[in-house]
Amino acid sequence: MAFNINVYTESTPNPASMKFLVNKLLLNGSVDFPTKESAESSPFAKELFKFNFVAGVFFASNFVTISKTEDAEWPDIEPILKEFVKGAVESELQVREIVQEGTPEFEGTDAEIKIQQILHDYVRPAVEQDGGAIHFKSFDSGVVTVELRGSCSGCPSSTYTLKAGIENLLKRMVPEVTEVVSEAM
């Protein structure tokens, strides 16, 4: 008996991105394909980029966040993408070539490890809820640099989330932190 795949959509804080959720785990972790060229390792993303209105593709756990081109309208393309995602998941189109991933290995100073752990445990799940991802880049002289991906990349409310949410949390939990900044993708 075949497992019935359901796809439903959620808007994200970024009006150019929509989250397509499925009732199946797509991958552990997350992977971002901000351009057609970056999607070479992903059969699933490569197929999505064949639609001329797809501008970016981001996968995490049980969803794919798709960013559209400016000239496309969600009411026109959402049903097409929903049907495509359903078919791709049913036919087990790979998100990426199989690479085994375990729990993340955090590296660096004690403060850097603590920052990465907090981002992984507290911030990542919330950011994934909005169809995005956050990645630790560096910690230097009190400044934490992160990279925002998926729907968070270029989202109007991401600066507020970064300053009001993430920066306050890290300052409270890691006294060495003075500021959190985002590096553009």
UniProtKB/TrEMBL annotation:
It comes from the Bacteria. Transmembrane segments: none annotated. Signal peptide: none annotated. GO terms for molecular function: iron ion binding; iron-sulfur cluster binding. Pfam families: Nfu_N, NifU. Belongs to the NifU family. This is NifU family protein. It comes from Arcticibacter tournemirensis.
